[in-house]
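Convert to structure. Protein one:
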Amino acid sequence: MLATLVLAVYAVPYALRARTLARRGRPVPAWRIWCFGAGLVVLALAISPPVLDLAGSTFVAHMAEHLLIADVAALLLVLGLTGPLLAPLLRVRAIDRLRVLGHPVVAFALWAANLYLWHLAWAYEGALGNELVHVVQHALFLVLGMCLWLPLFGPFPKPAWFGTAAQLLYVVAVRLTGAVLANTFVWSGTVFYGWYGDLADQSAAGAVMMIEESVVTVALFGWLFLKWMREGAERQEILELAGVRGIDVDERRVARAVAAGRGEDLRLRLTGAERR
């Protein structure tokens, strides 16, 4: 029941807005719709009764559940978002101000604080023993997980300093933060949560966290490399186009446009074309 409700809360507004945009001739790319749908499926799986029951009996299952929510589902949902999709929400002043949560420094700080605070023994076991607290825990893992990915994959403008090199350092900082916690679970030799009381289970949970983070990190490094290559080629093409047409264009302007995914718009303006 809860999984169905979660799917409806996220899926219905998304589907209605995507249909509206399609009718206006501004369809959401199919791959983004698939990513958003996959994120909802992963989220529904993570909070399904069988997984919740298993998570209540073993720490390794609970860790896997949290990774599905905070990393996998959050990432897929962010990949499914675009500026036009979010436009109605951002017209609400109070919601628009929440954009600050997508700033790299703010997003990382909140995500790291949330990760470590919830893994303190009193907070972790408090969530296990209270359903409402458990729901809040999962909601924060999802929301702050999405905030974590927004600086890399979100549709909002990024700070000028947050280029490819800064994004690489961001990924490294995120993974080092998670690795410290994972290694603590693996090598501490002390059971942290009396609810489970099994050192082997705790070590396995840490190992699962390390493996998942390693896979995600490798994928992100590959994405950053491809992004760096693509953006470099696109910047060069736009600068050459401006040169051919005798237009003086600031390289920094080109770099900002390409980094924001607006390189094609700038190219059209340089050629005097208008998007119809």
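Protein two, convert as well:
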Amino acid sequence: MGSTCSHPHDETGLTDREIGRALAAAEARCADQGERMTAPRRRVLELLLQAGEAVKAYDLIARYGLDGVAAKPPTVYRALDFLEKAGLAHRIASISAYVACSAGDRAHAAAFLICDCCGATEEVTPPEGEALHRAAEAAGYAIERTTIEGHGRCPACRVAA
């Protein structure tokens, strides 16, 4: 999404070494699940990890090509769908954007704190996440994904205000 406010923010993306480790872990996770980490899936995940913040699909489409050529939208949307189902990325519905999962190797309920000033997002563990899954199981449901969103201001934007 990028910063839209005028005050400074820390960089949020991962280093090249951290991205390499995260991609290797994602490939291993896919293999464990009997899935393949195809080149398009890997590239989209790499772009999400590089951004370190929520990114809209059309920005991923524009950034996809290493040689400056944009990807075809279905390629990126299919990769995003796979990454979300595999638990490697999350869709943040209220801002129509995607972010790499920070939990890594486990399925979980996700909650996001979203700054309405700069667009920064932070994944946190929702305190009621496990309780929701237990309640669903008791009712005979099997929840596949849970995402909770909280909007407000990040620390940098709060200080600047």
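The helical segments are 16-32, 39-51, 57-63, 73-85, 129-138, 155-160. The chain has one domain: 16-160.
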